[in-house]
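Researcher: Structure for this, please.
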Amino acid sequence: MKKHLFLCSLAFSFLFTLRAQSLKILDHLDNNIGGLTHMESGTPTMMSETKFHVENISSNSIDYKIKAYQILNFPNSDLQVCFGQACYTATAGITGAQTISGNGTVAGNNKDLTLKIAPFAFAWGGNTSATWGITAYDMNNPNDSVSTIITWTTWATGIQTINATKTSYNAFPNPAEKFVSISYTIAENIASAHLVVIDIIGNEILQVPTTGKNGEIKLDVSSLSSGIYFYGFKADGKLLSSKKLVISK
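Model: Predicted structure, token format:
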């Protein structure tokens, strides 16, 4: 009986080891985006330099590779994947997963901070977006992998960001269905600001003026379609910063 229990325990341990996930994919702020749909938005220059981190939670060094598959794109927007200074391409218009040439290395219990994944900068203009599925996997154990879906969106011409570190705001509920309340504190050096809501391709679809440095704005979002939006505050024609707002009907 003891031998049987020992063998069962050994088999369970072996299966767990085979299925254990050692890799995580993080955004540049170290948020875990594995298994999620992740949004990146900004100017064309910002989007061309989008960096991600690959974390290894095992004790052994891992050589990892990247697979990419196109979900939504626009013409001439091949995907560039860089491991440090070595850059490779996934070609737009190809159906199915493409294994990227080259590989990265991440030490045990450490992060590789050199990974850059972004559509080519020359293809970007205002009101454009691209979505690719990304998988990072251990070269020596392809079943040890992590996947995410990433959408890059450039803002329309004229939407720019400025530093406003003392401006803070939050939306509740988020996801929202019919109404969303946004509480805010505007930095003292900003004379006036407007709350704006921007759709996924950079169009400004709502704008409401603030009435003071601190307050709360209630928005009727019942007319908006389900999906991903961005909200933030705009001053002097520039976006202070933005956050994600989900509309779910």
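Researcher: Any notable elements?
Model: The chain has a mean pLDDT of 80. Residues 193 and 235 are 5 Å apart (CA to CA).
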